[in-house]
């Protein structure tokens, strides 16, 4: 691990502290323009997200029905009852997005898969950088809000599901994560710039309370009129 990455992890509470926990649970409220593009209804109700910290697993409840939840892993996604009875499931879910564009409709399993990998990525950032198989290099800083944000380009290993293979992360002067750039391969590979703020300390770890993902223009600037996904977080609990 290079010195820059170590300093980033330390700024977020430190790898030793992160490794004391196995899961994180948080209440989320989501919105944005992606959902209607996908033919989905996104309400403002609060849902509870749970992710594993050291392997890629995620679950959100309720999902579709009050007593349903999702069960996401890269190789399989399912909708199940709170008692674990499978309602619907899909193996090798990534291939089901082949040929999709930004406005190709999604079914509930598509949504469950996207939600699972995206929220796992967000809720384990930046600590997944210390997991085996991740490759990274520092890239040119960008200027935002009168500050210089240092950049890190990360190549995800094949066994980790995420937006795309190569993603860019930018850190403020305090080395907290401020921006996350990627392409959404499951939706026509549209480019996104996601802003992260409202960090709070939770059990010794620094976690954001807001994420806002915009369509990214060719000049790397966010198109502020095109908010694709908004997420607000509250009530983090690490166990």
Structural description of this entry:
The protein has 239 residues and is mainly beta. The chain has one domain (3-238): outer membrane lipoprotein receptor (LolB), chain A (Clam). It is 14% helix and 45% strand. The protein is built from 4 helices and 15 strands. The strands form 3 sheets. It has a 10-stranded antiparallel beta sheet, covered by helices on one side. The protein has a 3-stranded antiparallel beta sheet with strand order 4-5-6, with helices on one face. A two-stranded antiparallel sheet has the order 12-13. Strand 5 and strand 6 (86-91) form a beta hairpin.
Reading the helices and strands in chain order gives: HHEHEEEEEHEEEEEEEEE
Low-confidence stretches: none
The CATH architecture would be Clam
Query: How far apart are the termini?
Result: 26 Å
**Quick one: CATH class?**
Mainly Beta
Estimated helix fraction: 10-25%
Total of domains: 1
| CATH superfamily caption | Lipoprotein localisation LolA/LolB/LppX
By oligomeric state, this entry counts as: single chain
The number of distinct β-strands equals 15
Overall 3D form: globular
Structural class: mainly beta
| SS summary, helix count | 4
CATH topology, anyone?
Answer: outer membrane lipoprotein receptor (LolB), chain A
